[in-house]
Amino acid sequence: MKKLNVAVLFGGRSPEHEVSLTSAAGVLGSMDKSRFEPVMIGISKGGGWYCYDGPLERITDGTWQGQARPAVLSQSPERKVLYVLPDMREINIDVMFPVLHGRNGEDGTVQALAELADIPLAGCGVLASALAMDKERAHRLAASAGIAVPRSVTVTSPNTPVKGLEPPLFVKPLRAGSSFGISRVADMRELPAAVELALKYDTTAIIEEEIPGFEVGCAVMGNDELITGIPDEIEISGGFFDFEEKYTLKTSEIHLPARVSADKLVEIQETAKKIYRALGCRVLARVDMFLTPEGRLVFNEVNTVPGFTPHSRFPSMMRAAGFGFGDVVTRAIELAVER
Ligand SMILES: Nc1ncnc2c1ncn2[C@@H]1O[C@H](COP(=O)(O)OP(=O)(O)O)[C@@H](O)[C@H]1O
Ligand SMILES: [Mg+2]
Question: Which residues make Cβ contacts (< 8 Å) with residue 33, sequence separation at least 6?
Answer without folding.
Answer: none
